[in-house]
Give the backbone structure.
Amino acid sequence: MQGRLLIPLLLLCLLLISVLSLFLGSVQLPPADILSAILFREDALASEILWDYRLPRTLFAIVIGAMLAMAGAMMQTLLRNPLADPYILGTSGGAAAGVLAAFYLSLPVWFHLVAAVGGALFSTILLLLFSGFIRSRDTNRLLLTGIVLTTGWGALITFLLTLSPSSSLPGMLFWLVGDLNEQASLAVPALVLLISLPPVLFAARPLDMLLLGRQQAASLGVDVARMHLLLLGFAILLTATAVAFAGPIGFVGLVAPHIIRLISGSGHRLLIPATALLGGILLVAADLLSRTLVAPRIMPAGVFMTLLGVPLFLYLIRRQS
Amino acid sequence: MRPLAECDRVCLDAGTTRLVQDLRWELMPGECWGILGPNGSGKTTLLHALAGLHPVAQGEIRLDGTPVGKLSRKAIARHAGLLFQETHYPFPMRVRELVMAGRYAWQSRGGASSDHDEEITARAIAVMRLEKVAERHVDTLSGGERRRVALATLLSQQAGIQLLDEPENHLDPGIRLKLLESFVDQLDSHKQTTVMVLHEPALAVRLCSHLLLLFEDGSYLAGETDRVATAENMSRLYGTPFHAVRSGKILLFYPG
């Protein structure tokens, strides 16, 4: 499909699903009330639900989904492997362990982000060291290393949860499975997303060439080390920010880039923005399901993303081997 | 005329093994060099060193007078382009996009491709007879077609030195010679030169004006093909007796 069509189409889908997300929820409101809340802010209850709850939540889901999807696409380019995803490779796990440690030590909220970046960075360095990413192109080794790291972070998280006072457990658990309830701040994730886009888009051409392999790209004139640093830095920053604010939500970074590549190929100029848009769409949809399927109860959005991602991942493994 | 590349007492290592010892070698425009040698004699390593992808243990490699270490990746890519032994494409990419990737070294940062780039790309695709598959994804092509895509990318790169690592890989015997000849024909003999690592002495004799023989002990012999391509040298090179037969313009070597 032509790029000219893809982006407007995705924008349209995002708009539709967002409107749907404003009209539907765990509390059923008549559409007329919502319309009047949008237009005149008359109905107090509807206004409150819409402006204080559904709208920020929808925007939050868009931003977090876009970040996770972009981080996935960047990890896939960095590792030259369509199966790479921050969630599967332990980056999210490292960030989550960092955040929970910060929770446990009762550190101030702003420190959660620092802890998340630290955890994600540490986990990714371990991954690169032990998977031999630069020299080998061994998918099995990469995935195995990632899975072992994820398991390790899981154990550490359980350990921290066991030590934590029972009063804070439900909040921690919900955060852990990807919860969009606590949209403490939209500004920070949105800012991180906005500063990540231009440098990645500007490097679209050399990033495309990175897909040919480290040496091939270098022989064509690409400064490979710089590109790797760019990808790694922003993938970690995006993942850590998303995790710090919304918990570790898996598989957005796997599903969104995969679908975009099927439609429009691997060119980063289109892949990055289209993937970000699709990530937003997917997470708004997952969140919508989580709010309506078992209403009036609310499920964490991460559950639906994982339910969608696991079959696709299994399919991709089968196709790769 | 200034050499496109000079090796000044170059030593190359792979791990702790010394492969090439004290190599002094100059590449002049219009020459076509064939590198022959037994497995593990450092043929590929030498090509990679010329492209700045492998460090020299001692000595210095200069591209157009400047040491490789002082050049940016883009500058190196304008001096030397490399055809790898094997290429892998794990993501879907179109043939035309790939051939266009060869133009990267000549474009400004984040630069779009100009009409001139399009023209060069189209010509490279035509020379390698890829018009029919130009819009296809490269992962759907056969091994030989992919090899031609890699050669076309190298053509569009328009580097001073074309480094070909076993270019005959995956190419049908029927078109092997023709394709490589048309590749060399496309080059500007005033500004460009070719270096190819080959396994088949006969192909080297047929295509190359000069030969560089890399012996197992790290020594080498460089010179014009007529002078270097003797049964005696081949026997010493491969460590087994070789005989030569001449039929018209064709010189063949066979062991035994």
Summary: Chain A touches chain B at residues 80-82, 137, 202-206, 208-209, 211-213, 215-216, 218-224, 261, 265-267 (CB under 8 Å). Chain A is about 75% helix and 0% strand. The two ends of chain A are 28 Å apart (CA to CA). Residues 3-23+31-320 of chain A form a domain with the ABC transporter involved in vitamin B12 uptake, BtuC fold (CATH 1.10.3470.10).
